[in-house]
Structure formats: structure tokens, C-alpha cells
Amino acid sequence: MEQPILQVEHLTKFFSVGPHAEVHAVDDVNFTLRRGRTFGLVGESGCGKSSCARTIIRIYEPSQGKIIFNGQDIAHLKPRQMQPVRRNMQMIFQDPYASLNARMTEVDEKVFAMLNRVGLTAEHAGRYAHEFSGGQRQRVGIARALVLNPALVICDEPISALDVSIQAQVVNLLRDYQQAEGTSYLFIAHDLSMVRYVSDDIGVMYLGQLVESSDSEEIYKNPLHPYTKGLLSC
Q1: Pairing label, strands 184-188, 152-156
Q2: Are residues 204 and 23 in contact, defined by beta-carbon separation less than 8 angstroms?
Q3: Which residues contact 3 (CB under 8 A, 6 or more apart)?
Q4: What pairing do the DSSP bridges indicate for beta strands 72-73 and 64-69?
Q5: Neighbours of 165 (CB within 10 A)
Q6: How far apart are the C-alpha atoms of 26 and 120, rounded to whole Å?
Q7: Over the range 25-38, which residues count as b (16 or more CB within 10 Å of their CB) and which as e?
Q8: Predicted TM-score (pTM) of this structure
Q9: What is the pLDDT of residue 28?
Q10: C-alpha span between 231 and 234 (Å, rounded)
Q11: From residue 161, how far is each of 32, 137, 165, 199 by CA, in Å?
């Protein structure tokens, strides 16, 4: 079988909240993301989804565990060693305004082509962040993540701040790009219907732990963990 694009093994991230106290934001998480597929990560706010994503991409330093990306454990690489890795692993952030540089525009031909691909034009490259609508800012964020043609894109609640009509456009844009380029997605959201629509496999997080993981359809038809059942019933 083909090697997975991402294997997360016993990933743990603790945050110190005092001289003798820690918050277990991510606690012994394990899952596998297949190449060209989408792994959906769901759970209520504060369950550790975003902390898990930011630890995988090394915005946060992992406390323990392995992050095997393209066959290489990147969990404890030094910043310089991470540079070539980051070209193949990008992130779309939840807040498209906060994640854009308010003083920067874009002026590259490759950028023009990607803007066009996400439904914008070359004219938009000369605008500043405050000159875009929410939907346009998220499209810029997607274009920025995809412009290097990464093997893996971590989508951290990329549609939660958008209107419902724009949400469908953004999700279909991501799906079309995946089909064309074979990109793998780690898709984080709390909208269960949307996660079911985009994901091949789904993991459910609760209090920093991955309590259930299965094929997308199976987890909706036959949930096993009480928290998963409660989440679906809501």
C-alpha cells in the first residue's frame, strides 16, 4: 500500500498555566491521513482541534509524540530543517483577516494565476487586506496556502467565519483543487454536515483526546463513543 502522507502517533501538547499546572490541549492523539484524501477532525469548541493542527504544522512545539510527514518524523526538527517541509505543508486559518498582512500586497505572476483559480483577478493582488470582503479574504488565504502546490493543506475551520452561501463556494473550490492536484487535506470544523460532505475519514476529539476515528459514512451510521453519539444528536 502507498505510504500515507501524514501519520500522527501519540501526539501530545501541554501548556503551562502556572508553576505546577498544565493544560493537556492535545493528549496522545493518533490518526493517519491517506494521500489525496481528506481527514475531518470534529468536536466542540475548546476540544483541542486547532491546537492539534498547529502542533502538526509546528506553530506549537509538540510535547511528545511523532508527526510523520512524507515518511519523515518532523516533530523535533529545528527551524532551518523545517523550511523545505513547509513548502509542502500549508495552512488555511480560521480568521482570514488576522492571518493576512495588513500592509502587504501580492505582485507575482504565479500569484495572479492562483488568484484567478480561486475566483479572484489580478486586480485583487494590488489590494490591502482591509479592502476585501470576508469571502474574498478567505479566498486570498486559500490562494496563499495553495500557491506552492503543497502535498498537505491543514484547513483550520476555513468556513466558520463566512456566510452560508460563501461556505459552499469555498468548500467546492477546495474539492475541485483536490481532484485536480491530488492534495491531501486535514479539515477541521464543528459543522458536522460539512465535514461529512468533504471528508473520507473522520476523527472525533473530546477534551484533547481522539475518542473515535473511522470511515466518514460509518461514523455517522454507527457511532460507538457516547460523545460521538451526543455530538451527532445535536
Answers
A1: parallel
A2: no
A3: 35, 70, 71
A4: antiparallel
A5: 8
A6: 37
A7: bbbebebbbbebbb
A8: 0.88
A9: 97
A10: 5
A11: 28, 11, 12, 20
Are 152 and 69 spatial neighbours (Cβ–Cβ below 8 Å)? Answer: yes
134: its cell numbers: 470576508
CA torsion sign, 212 to 218 to 219 to 224?
negative
- Please compute the mean of the pLDDT values over residues 183-210 and round it to a whole number: 92
For 182, the grid coordinates are 491530488
Pairing of strands 184-188, 201-206: unpaired
Q: What is the pLDDT of residue 97?
A: 60
| Joined grid coordinates for residue 73 | 518524523
Q: ∠ at Cα 115 (156, 110), nearest 5°? A: 110
DSSP state of 102: T
Residue pLDDT, tens place only, 141-171: 888 889 889 999 999 988 877 778 778 888 8
Dist. CA 91–CA 83, nearest whole Å: 14
Residue 168's pLDDT is what?
84
Predicted local distance difference test score (pLDDT) of residue 98: 63
For residue 91, count CB atoms less than 10 angstroms from its CB and return exposed for 0-12, middle for 13-18, buried for 19 or more.
buried
Cell numbers that stand for 5 in this block = 502522507
Alpha-helix residue ranges (DSSP H) falling in the chain: 49-56, 79-86, 109-117, 134-146, 164-181, 192-198, 216-221, 226-233
